[in-house]
Specification:
heterodimer; A: 207 residues; mainly alpha; 8 helices; globular; B: 286 residues; alpha/beta; Rossmann fold; 6-stranded mixed beta sheet; 4-stranded antiparallel beta sheet; 34% helix
């Protein structure tokens, strides 16, 4: 397990430094400009999550899984290590995301909430994506990302068409806030379910 | 325990291919050569041993343990080399060591370094800059550095030049000096097997054609060559397989010495593993 994580971190090391580098540049730009801290934070969280996909891509290029299973490594560990990697990347993104706020000395509750929710969204996205990556590989799974990202858009569109408006659903701020706090536990739950699905996929997959 | 690897009645069904009732074993202190055409079932057999695919029936015991139930324990003691390197090209040899050190309990850094030095492999060069031979040597070094007792090589010498192949063969002979070790060596470069193997297992269309001691095979079998008239006189019982070619008939005989005595006027040549394979695949049954 540790070996697998170490291998993943080693292989995505280059992309990681690239993300951090781009982030640093943007950080400077945003330090000069007024706002956009939330946007930048959201970006870094999502990018970190996406790095997990790179790890899949590198494995595919080198057919690593085929080799890995000749080592004392089980399919369960192959799957589990990817979920741990997802959590590590997500946590790193989450922590990095606070930098723009600290930088501008702008730690409003709204900002913290944004980072928190974006992390939840990133985790939920990965929870959906990981089984697809295990099942189809990165090439085909890429198409699924578009499909997944389309769903909220389509839903909102349908919601508007249905004649209901957002104003008609009235919720108090406190209620919305409570709901938002629940987003992370919900995303984590989704990730746990996702793990079992991925595990089942790998168990049935013949390499 | 006499056999380091024991396979019995192993079957695996695919829509277009069937591995049927494979049985053979790798005795301690020996090299077993697995030969057969491309697609004959060699890699499928190895994948089944490694539990990478699921068997339909049969039994595989490694070091006397079931290969599925004791998978991790077994894999600590196996070293596998495939026909290509499965390491990510941006890694260096030292990265491989630091990864595998966390995977194998018995990983020996000093041994790995010695292997690299012996193979003249640079530690700090990226693997994608390695030649094919270097990649293969790296795979072998990685498979040896955790001190396995069973080596499984799947076409590990194909595509390599004779010098590198001979280096690798020497290494295998060295490995087998320890009587508790064993090697399963799948290859279609049969000349390599002729040099090092103790047993030859021949798979054809998913079935075992024979599993015999190599010496027994190449010293006893022979190829009888004759014209059509002479061929009619030959006792069919002496033949294993026969073929007709433009010059006459060729037949594989199970006992060269006996054939020489029985047919003093006919030519009986030595048979190589290649010849034997060819007769079994292309020849007619007497």
């Amino acid at each position: 397990m540790i070996g697998l994580l170490y291998k993943d971190l080693l292989s995505i090391k280059k992309s990681m430094t690239r993300v951090v580098f781009v982030f640093a540049i943007y950080l400077v730009i945003f330090a000069i400009s007024e706002d956009g801290a939330s946007f930048l934070s959201a970006m870094v969280v999502l990018l970190s999550a996406m790095l997990v996909m790179n790890a899949f891509a590198y494995d595919e290029i080198s057919k690593w899984n085929y080799y890995a299973l000749s080592l004392p490594i089980t399919k369960r560990q192959l799957v589990l290590s990817r979920y741990v990697l997802t959590l590590i990347m997500n946590l790193s993104g989450f922590l990095l995301a606070f930098l723009p706020g600290l930088f501008r000395n702008h730690m409003s509750m709204e900002f913290v909430m944004t980072v928190y929710c974006v992390s939840s969204v990133a985790l939920a996205l990965m929870a959906i994506l990981l089984p697809l990556l295990f099942k189809f590989g990165t090439q085909k799974a890429r198409i699924w990302i578009f499909v997944i990202c389309m769903i909220p858009t389509v839903l909102i569109f349908a919601f508007n068409k249905s004649g209901l408006s957002f104003q008609s659903v009235s919720l108090s701020n406190a209620a919305i806030e409570t709901a938002l706090w629940f987003s992370l536990p919900a995303a984590l739950l989704l990730l746990v379910i996702s793990y079992f699905i991925s595990y089942a996929i790998m168990q049935n997959k013949e390499l | 325990m006499d056999n380091i690897l024991e396979i019995s009645n192993l079957s695996k069904h695919y829509p277009t291919f069937d591995l049927q009732n494979i049985s053979f074993s790798v005795p301690c202190g020996s090299i077993v050569g697995l030969v057969g055409e491309n697609g004959a079932g060699k890699t499928t057999t190895i994948k089944l041993i490694l539990n990478e695919i699921r068997r339909d029936s049969g039994n595989i015991r490694v070091f006397g343990m079931d290969n599925i139930r004791e998978e991790r324990k077994i894999k600590e003691l196996i070293g596998v080399v495939f026909d290509e390197s499965y390491f990510y090209g941006e890694f260096r040899a030292q990265d491989i060591a630091s990864i595998l050190k966390k995977v194998y309990r018995t990983w020996d850094d000093a041994l790995f370094s010695r292997c690299l030095a012996q193979f003249k492999l640079p530690k700090d060069k990226m693997i994608r800059e390695y030649s094919k031979g270097m990649k293969m040597k790296l795979s072998i070094a990685s498979a040896l550095a955790h001190k396995p007792r069973l080596l499984i090589l799947d076409e590990a010498t194909s595509g390599l030049d004779p010098i590198i192949r001979s280096d690798i063969l020497d290494l295998l002979l060295d490995f087998i000096q320890d009587e508790t070790h064993g090697i399963l060596f799948s290859s279609h470069i049969t000349s390599d097997l002729e040099k090092v193997a103790d047993y030859i297992t021949f798979i054809h269309e998913g079935k075992i054609v024979f599993h015999r001691s190599k010496d027994d095979l190449i010293y006893r079998c022979g190829i009888l060559k004759c014209g059509s008239a002479d061929f009619q006189r030959v006792n069919r019982k002496d033949l294993i397989r026969w073929r007709k070619n433009e010059f006459g008939y060729e037949a594989l005989v199970s006992n060269r010495a006996a054939a020489c005595r029985a047919y003093p006027n006919l030519v009986v040549d030595n048979a190589s593993i290649d010849d034997i394979m060819l007769f079994f695949v292309k020849g007619e049954k007497p």
